[in-house]
């Protein structure tokens, strides 16, 4: 098995620089594992992630699934900040309480231009997955489509 292309510490440092609104201590996001072909990301709920009725919102679960997929892509391909989501399909299985969430992503297909992944979301204190997502990311070419700096 290949080693991860980046460590969790290196990835968090770079993500804080590129996405300061998402990867600060107050955001609740933490990368707990990176490996070639997968990642785990933890989210500690914030007041803005709780919807009426005392459950975590759907957009919060979608955000965590997308972040876990992005981290798995970076762990596998290396630093490609322009990799983008081309599809994300999520099934909400159980109402998660306002408790820490963990997303486990495994890439099921990695190619030169696309990566397809499977993400399981688990909530502390709940037996069973609270959501399941599949996602596809587009991987930009190494030169980001530019030749000699000219499009």
Please, could you describe this protein's structure?
This protein is 21% helix and 36% strand. It has 151 residues and is α+β, with helices and mostly antiparallel strands. The strands form two sheets. A six-stranded antiparallel beta sheet has the order 1-2-6-7-8-5. A two-stranded antiparallel ribbon has the order 3-4. The N and C termini lie far apart (37 Å).
In short:
The protein has 151 residues and is an alpha+beta fold. It is built from two helices and eight strands; from the N terminus they run H-E-E-E-E-H-E-E-E-E. Strand 1 and strand 2 form a beta hairpin.
Which secondary structure elements does this structure contain, and how are they paired or packed?
Blueprint: H1 8-18, E1 29-35, E2 38-43, E3 50-51, E4 55-56, H2 58-77, E5 84-92, E6 101-110, E7 114-123, E8 131-138
Antiparallel strand pairs: 1-2, 2-6, 3-4, 5-8, 6-7, 7-8
What labels would you give this structure?
single chain; 151 residues; alpha+beta; six-stranded antiparallel β-sheet; two-stranded antiparallel sheet; 21% helix; 36% strand
SSE succession: HEEEEHEEEE
What's the β-strand tally? 8
**Arithmetic mean of pLDDT:** 91
What's the alpha carbon Rg, rounded to whole Å?
A: 16 Å
Report the top-level CATH class: Alpha Beta
Strand order of the largest sheet: 1-2-6-7-8-5
Q: What distance separates the N and C termini?
A: 37 Å
Please work out how many helical segments DSSP would assign: 2
**What is the architecture at the second tier of CATH?**
Roll
The computed structural class is: alpha+beta
**Overall body shape:** globular
Assembly category: single chain
Catalogue the unreliable spans: 146-151
Task: Summarize the biggest pleated sheet.
Answer: 6 strands, antiparallel
Q: What is the name of the CATH topology?
A: Thiol Ester Dehydrase, Chain A
- Give the domain tally: 1
Helix content: 10-25%
Superfamily (CATH H level) name: Hotdog Thioesterase
Percent strand equals 35-45%
């Amino acid at each position: 098995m290949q080693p991860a292309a980046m460590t969790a510490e290196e990835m968090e440092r770079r993500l804080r620089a590129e996405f300061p609104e998402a990867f600060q201590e107050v955001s609740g996001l933490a990368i707990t594992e990176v490996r070639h072909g997968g990642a785990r990301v933890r989210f500690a709920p914030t007041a803005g992630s709780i919807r009426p009725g005392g459950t975590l919102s759907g957009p919060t679960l979608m955000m965590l699934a997308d972040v876990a997929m992005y981290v798995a892509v970076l762990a596998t391909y290396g630093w490609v900040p322009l990799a983008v989501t081309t599809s994300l399909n999520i099934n909400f299985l159980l109402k998660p309480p306002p408790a820490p969430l963990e997303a486990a992503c495994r890439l099921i297909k990695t190619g030169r231009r696309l990566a397809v992944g499977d993400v399981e979301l688990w909530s502390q204190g709940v037996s069973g997955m609270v959501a399941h997502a599949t996602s596809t990311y587009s991987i930009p070419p190494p030169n980001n489509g530019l030749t000699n700096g000219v499009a």
